[in-house]
Specification:
The protein is α/β, with parallel strands linked by helices. The protein folds into two domains: about 150 residues, 3-Layer(aba) Sandwich (Rossmann fold); about 160 residues, Phosphofructokinase domain (Rossmann fold). It is about 40% helix and about 15% strand. The strands form four sheets. The chain has a four-stranded mixed sheet, with helices on both faces. α4 packs across α5 and α6 crosses α9. The longest helix is centred in the middle third of the chain and has 22 residues. The chain is elongated, with a radius of gyration of 22 Å. Bound molecules: 6-O-phosphono-beta-D-fructofuranose.
Length: about 350
């Protein structure tokens, strides 16, 4: 609008594009939304190249591009995590211009220092860990808190450090149960009568890693794969024997058995993705969004608008869509966590 650009919103993400649903967005439509979480347009997990259409799953990439072309759209702007980046790249390969922005609480998009949503989720998870400390200390318990993050442990690590977790388990560092048990018992020996264990949903034991258990279900591009969700739903209908114990429950049960300490669990789930965005995320969105506007006005397409230090920079979408940005083993956050004697599940540290 600022640049004389006409903006069409697409309800429900790629599904809306395939179903040819568009709505004109004008100034009043986007006024006053800075404080809102989620999206005023709605979204979906659907991918154009594997779109559930009735009883079938079809490649609708061509239809998506044709619908955009029919509206004389010069460029599609796609906001999302790794799945969105990959889908946008496919649309690009099919001949449509795209610009993407990195939006996920997982903070695991390649090419950017940070994604928007991460700070808000980290604040929520940290506050939850703070609150869990109350029962943990009063009742002398071990509390296992599961946070989101299938392939990357940024959220567990960030909130775990900020919340002063005693153990942090992330997908990148397979954990040894005995190491965790020993850490909890050491704390108890030193009159620390509570422990907080923060677990990323994709955390796995050394044995599971050795046996090839992927941080996400094998074959799925990410945990949000529509087919994967369907398979899980089908599996659930086959019988209760297929319903698996949740990760936080399993870890709590094992730790309680092996340490004799009373354990409880809390899984934060979608609470982490809800509510009003943090000031830092609003600030970041404004910087990234305005930069995207400039790139659109300049016709600089097929990039993701990324954060590099204090700058916003365009990075080639091709590079971004290649995978996930996981926590490197030598990352300063891990180093700092270990220096404050947080157990990362892989080696014993004496308190
Ligand atoms: O991709 C972001 C994410 O928040 C992951 O951390 C989590 O595994 C997933 O979404 C949950 O997805 P859904 O809302 O589809 O259950």
């Amino acid at each position: 609008m600022h640049y004389g650009i006409r903006v069409l919103g697409i309800p429900d993400g790629f599904r809306g594009l395939v179903e040819n649903r568009f709505q004109l967005l004008e100034d009043p439509d986007v006024s006053g939304i800075l404080t809102l979480g989620g999206t005023i347009l709605g979204t979906s997990r659907d991918k154009p190249h594997k779109m559930p259409m009735g009883n079938q799953i079809l490649d609708m990439t061509g239809v998506a591009v044709a619908n955009a072309r029919a509206r004389e759209i010069d460029c599609l702007v796609c906001l999302g995590g790794n799945g969105t980046q990959k889908n946008a790249q496919r649309i690009r390969e099919a001949g449509m211009n795209v610009i993407t922005l990195p939006k996920t609480i997982d903070n695991d998009v390649i090419g950017t220092d940070v994604t928007f949503g991460f700070n808000t989720a980290m604040n929520i998870a940290t506050e939850a860990i703070d609150r869990l400390h109350t029962t943990a200390t009063s009742h002398h318990r071990v509390i296992v808190c599961e946070v989101m993050g299938h392939k990357a442990g940024w959220l567990a690590l960030g909130a775990g450090i900020a919340g002063g977790a005693d153990v942090i388990l992330i997908p990148e560092i397979p954990y040894d149960r005995e190491v965790v048990v020993e850490h909890l018992l050491e704390r108890r020996k030193h009159s620390k009568r509570f422990s907080i264990v923060v677990v990323a949903e994709g955390a796995r034991s050394v044995k599971e890693a050795r046996d090839g258990k992927a941080a996400t279900p094998s074959g799925a591009e990410n945990s949000n794969d529509v087919e994967d969700t369907r398979k899980k739903a089908d599996a659930l209908h086959e019988g209760p024997h297929l319903v698996q114990e949740s990760l936080d429950s399993r870890i709590a049960r094992q730790l309680q058995q092996l340490t004799g300490l009373e354990a409880r669990t809390t899984s934060l789930g979608h609470v982490q993705r809800g509510g009003s965005p943090s000031p830092q995320d609003r600030h970041l969105c404004t910087l990234l969004g305005t930069r995207a506007g400039e790139l659109l006005a300049d016709g600089e397409y097929n990039v993701m608008v990324a954060v590099s230090g204090s700058e916003t920079v365009p990075v080639p979408l091709e590079e971004v869509s290649r995978g996930h940005r996981t926590v490197p083993a030598d990352h300063p956050w891990i180093h700092a966590a270990e220096l404050v004697e947080t157990c990362m599940g892989n080696r014993v540290r004496r308190t």
